[in-house]
Amino acid sequence: MLENNTISSNKNILMDPFERSINYLRISVTDRCDFRCVYCMAENMTFMPKADLLTLEELYRLASIFIECGIKKIRLTGGEPLVRKNIMWLIESLSDKIGRSNLEEVTITTNGSQLKKYASDLFENNIRRINVSIDSLDHNTFKKITRWGDLGQVLEGIAHAQEAGIRVKLNTVALKGVNDHEIPSMIRWAHSNNMDMTLIETMPMGDIDGDRTENYLPLTEYKKRLDSEFTLTSSDYKTGGPSRYYDCKETGGILGLITPLSNNFCADCNRVRITCTGKMYMCLGQDDSMDFNKMMRGNASDQEIINLIHKSINLKPKSHNFIIDENHKKPAVDRHMSVTGG
Length: 342
Ligand code: SAM
Ligand code: SF4
Fold this sequence. Notes:
By secondary structure, this protein is an alpha/beta fold.
């Protein structure tokens, strides 16, 4: 339970120095994963020591305090959120706050491998929309990208989620020379199966076994190719996120493009991120962070945590530092996407 104290100023609103209202929290509940996507992590990744991970109860308390401060939407991500032991406890506990606090929605981003097992539990716990990452519909290419993933298992998981009544949106990282030839048919497949789809550019986060620049595909360029196959018109659909949405006349579906590198999306940023060890990152593309771990494990009061949240939001930068080209082969930030979540 939260202590009976008040947020003396800015009650229920988190506003950063650039007058962006911050109402969306992403929590990376684990940095571990059952896949090893080539653009995300090395095959022999070193994960955080287990002792550093916040317990689910600690994550719940921290999330609850964020909700008190004005967070309306929470997305659980990772690593793979559904491989964290007892994750349904956290999902159930957070979902219980929907409509009884500032919280309006809990959702997840998943690789889909565990959806068959969890789809109906997710629906029962008020999860109505999820993002599933899928980068190819070809079994060999899927294996090549995810190293350890099984396309059949993911497709089965998606089917279970849809049968349970959960709306699925697909996320696809566009990779030059790997899946770019397949993307138009993936769009048709997604839209004909009642799923919207978002394409994402590779972001330079964390060391991987290879060189990301080789497969970097600027989506502002790739859109010209899509324009020759589809009639894409700017959509009214908005999520307050970084995606630019287009209505696709031929399929009747919506296509999102996330272009952090080729077209900076920071002006509309409404989110902050918490890692599984309790670090808060104010920006996906910068290394500045605030550590809540010691506070959560010490005797910090809720008010002290609230004060640190406000202090952190005041440090949110105007924009990220991503650059990806021949001259910038090193990652812009040291941590992997799996640490902060997508
Ligand atoms: N494991 C879950 C999944 O794959 O959906 C959730 C975590 S994953 C880090 C979240 C999203 O980040 C996925 O859509 C993934 O494709 C994307 N991602 C991971 N590393 C990336 C990178 N370096 N650049 C762009 N997107 C990345
Ligand atoms: Fe795992 Fe998601 Fe990273 Fe792939 S993108 S390795 S599924 S965390």
